[in-house]
Every structure is written in C-alpha cells, then in structure tokens.
Amino acid sequence: MSPLTRRALVGAAATALLTGCGGPSAATPTAARDARRRTPARDTEPGPSGPPSARPSGAVPVQLLVPAIDVDTPVITLGLAPDGTVEVPPVTADDRAGWYRHSPPPGQIGPSVILGHVTVGRYGDGVFRHLARLHRGDRITARLSDGGSAGFAVREVRTVAKADFPTDDVYGDVDRPELRLITCGGTRTGDGYTANVIVFAEQRPGGS
C-alpha cells in the first residue's frame, strides 16, 4: 500500500470516528476517492513467514467478543457513504461495532480494522467505552459469517493524539493476520475527542 493511500485511509476512517464520539467531522472527497481505490486483501497469499488465510474470502465478521471489557457486540460492515465520507456505526441505543470493508476480514493476512464509539450522543456510553483498559494478552474473538471464528491476543494499546495518528502502524502491510480496534479517547471537547485509542492484536496460535 502506498503512503498516499495510507494517509487517505486514516483521513477517511479515523477522522470519521469523530462523528459518533462527540462532534461532526467528515472525510475529504479526495480521501474518500483514494480509499475507494484500495482493494480488500481477502485472497492474499501467505507472506514469507506468514500463515495461510484462515477463512474463505467470502467470510466477514458478524460478532466481536472482548471478555476482559465485557464486549459482546454484533459487527456491521462499513464502507463509504453516498457523499464519499466513510460510514461509521449508527448512533443508536443498541450501539454496535463496525468492520471497515476496505481492510481484510479478521483471519485474513493483513490488519483488519474494526471501529466503535466511545460515546453515542444522548444514549451515553458506546460499545468501545472501555477499550483503553485492555492489557497485553487479553483475548479477542471475531465470529465470522461462515460460522468460523478468528482469535486474537492484544499486543499493545496506544492512546495517541489525532494529529499524530500512526497511519503506517495501523494500516501498513503485515505478513500475518492482525486486528486493530479503534475508538476515540483523550479529552472530550465541543468538537469531539482529542485522541484515538488503538488496540493492536495478533492472531492466537491455531487462529481461533
């Protein structure tokens, strides 16, 4: 993936999280067009030291389980809205996480990206409200539409200023299945939040 495409993805996906986390924001049309050019890596062959794809290319995540923070949420598929901005999970009482379909599905080679809200307006707390409390080794399971699952273990949790979002670390190519969970964090302001919380997870041995 080129540096330009990575910058477009972070501008489109991470910035769009502001909408549900506290204040309005939208991707630029340029970012949305660039994001649209990226082909999901669903049929990627294994890298030099990477495992084979864990699931057929048609499987997508439908449920996310993070026991350490009591998350058991349906997962919807997010893409690009008609106006060219990146979709985010709807701000509703039954808050759900969303898988960004321009990233690989969980269990495929590459970084799969799942977004969630920390707050959902008048409904209060979002599904990822406790994301920053995760620790290294905590387990995450993504259940897939084909009846299978992909299991991960937390490697690192970072809280970073939105201006310093680590684009390459989040969206850069890797030779194994990995997972990124992203929400807002830091100080809440009138326009949203000042930071992002990012969980980096790697697939557990056995893949489930």
For CATH, the homologous superfamily is named as Sortase
Total beta strands: 8
How do the strands line up in the largest sheet?
Answer: 1-2-3-4-7-8-6-5
Q: Can you identify the CATH class?
A: Mainly Beta
Q: How far do the termini sit from each other?
A: 27 Å
Largest sheet: 8 strands, mixed, barrel
Output the number of helix runs.
4
Write down the overall geometry.
globular
Element order: H for helix, E for strand: HHHEEEEEEHEE
Task: Give the overall average pLDDT.
Answer: 77
Which bin fits the share of residues in helices? 10-25%
Specify Rg, calculated over alpha carbons.
Answer: 16 Å
Uncertain parts: 2-8, 10-16, 22-56
Domain module tally: 1
Structural class: alpha+beta
Task: Estimate the strand proportion.
Answer: 25-35%
CATH architecture: Beta Barrel
Which fold name fills CATH's third level, the topology? Sortase, Chain: A
Organism: Streptomyces thermocoprophilus
Protein name: Class F sortase
Signal peptide: 1-26
Pfam families: Sortase (PF04203)
Question: Could you name the key traits of this structure?
Answer:
208 residues, alpha+beta, Sortase, Chain: A, eight-stranded mixed β-barrel, 4 helices, 15% helix, disordered N terminus
